[in-house]
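User: Sequence recovery, please. Input:
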């Protein structure tokens, strides 16, 4: 039921603010774990489409859930940055045990996150190594014609 409520929240309006998305992700992290999410957002807010909002939220949910479940992290964080070329980057990181991305068994998590980023015209990069933590970086164009609603 919570997933349905979150999906409805993301499609209820024509535009969302980046800051409201960061708040929603923080709320999810607080419900999922007692480990606080360290959040950094740009000084200036930007508008996001429902598709951008929902897909970024789902990517963050998956990354945070994986950090909590597998990484034994001492810290987890979320950083949004506005890039010079009208792109938005979302970095999810943890200071956990990390993993070898090449040795990861086939599963839906990273594949689904990559699909969601590509659906927005963006990309997803994963950096991790044993005992080095994990960084998942999503970069999307802020304004793209023909984005799915």
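Assistant: Recovered sequence (149 residues):
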């Amino acid at each position: 039921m919570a997933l349905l409520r979150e999906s409805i929240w993301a499609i209820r309006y024509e535009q969302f603010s980046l800051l409201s998305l960061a708040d929603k992700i923080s709320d999810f992290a607080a419900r999922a774990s007692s480990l606080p999410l360290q959040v950094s957002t740009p000084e200036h807010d930007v508008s996001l489409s429902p598709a951008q909002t929902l897909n970024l939220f789902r990517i963050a949910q998956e990354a945070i859930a994986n950090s909590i479940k597998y990484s034994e992290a001492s810290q987890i964080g979320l950083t949004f940055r506005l890039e010079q070329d009208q792109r938005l980057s979302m970095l999810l990181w943890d200071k956990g045990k990390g993993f070898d991305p090449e040795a990861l068994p086939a599963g839906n998590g990273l594949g689904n996150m990559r699909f969601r980023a590509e659906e927005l015209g963006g990309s997803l990069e994963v950096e991790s190594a044993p005992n080095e933590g994990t960084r998942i970086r999503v970069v999307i164009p802020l304004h793209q014609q023909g984005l799915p609603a």
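The first strand starts at residue 16 and ends at 17.
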